[in-house]
Amino acid sequence: YTAVRTLNIAEGLAPSPELADAYTNGMVIAGVIPYPALARLYGRRALETARRINHPRTTAYALIGAGVYNLGLGQWAEAGKALQESVSISDQVGNWQRWSEALILMEQGAYYLGEFERGLQLATDLLDSARHRDNLLHQAWAFSGQAENNLRLGRAAAAAELAQAAIALYADNTDRVSEAATYGLLTLAQLRQGNLPLARQTAERLTALLAKLSSSVSYYLLDALAAVAEVYLTQWEAESQTDLRSADAKSLPSSARKACAALHRLAQVFPMGGPRAWLYEGWAQWQSGRPLRARQSWRKSLALAERLAMPYDQALAHYELGRHAAGAERQTRLAQACDLFARLGAADDLDRARKAQTQPRGD
Fold first, then answer.
1. pTM for the complete prediction?
2. What stretch of H or E contains 102?
3. CA atoms of 69 and 75, how far apart (whole Å)
4. What is the mean pLDDT of the chain?
């Protein structure tokens, strides 16, 4: 209401920084609805207005809005161009708030593109600046950025420590979306360390946080939702392969499906979440005894990941298709997964895929 009211008032006056900011906010809101045509219109007007009045801070903010919008769509080149310009403008005028916002968004773009070393460097640059300015929130963002890239690079222990450092700072610096995303990283790091019980505990706390954010929609919640889904699916699979059953074994399928449904809802707004949503959907279908539907879901995940140029998600789809196949298809898929994981430097994932190559079937 406030955003719309501000826009209506500002449009009745002369071009101003307030009008440009209102257009930027309108673009982000329209993108979440989602209403792409309106979002693009507001985005153009935001930049046109900001450049017309020659107001650097406002221009930097409009470019950040464009970056956020395009990241959610998986339009990496457009996002990167806008964010790089925002960083340059903010650096020139000494606006470190906007500089930090644009830089952490650039880090996220690198992360989703599978450029983990670059993402890690961008997060480290932000941390150095945030420490110099004694800005604790920006330090938390930087720790989270370092955590996610370290996690993908196979450094689960380091990722867990960094995630915990960020969470400690979020306690006094309200950014609940980033906090939830970081709990997702901590959950996945604990899972990669082989501590399923601890990961399950963290996932339950994360679920409670996500419930409080039910009205919030952000592409940055992808890892949080994915972490919950992966924990339930991992436990469901592990228990289906043994005679041991946990006290809540009967609820695992329902919990896993709810987590998958949440990922699909995110993907309806932010296409970049599509590959992961279909990846876990396939896993849930396999565990439910529907192998045909499972393979269809994994193929959808792969097709979307290829279309969006998300190589890490491509590798995950090849891995799931491979480990649940036999014979030549198994070896071909797993070899493709290994090749992608190796190129990305994803050491833990590469190790998992190589181990799967030595097994005859993924039943």
1. 0.94
2. helix 96-112
3. 9
4. 95
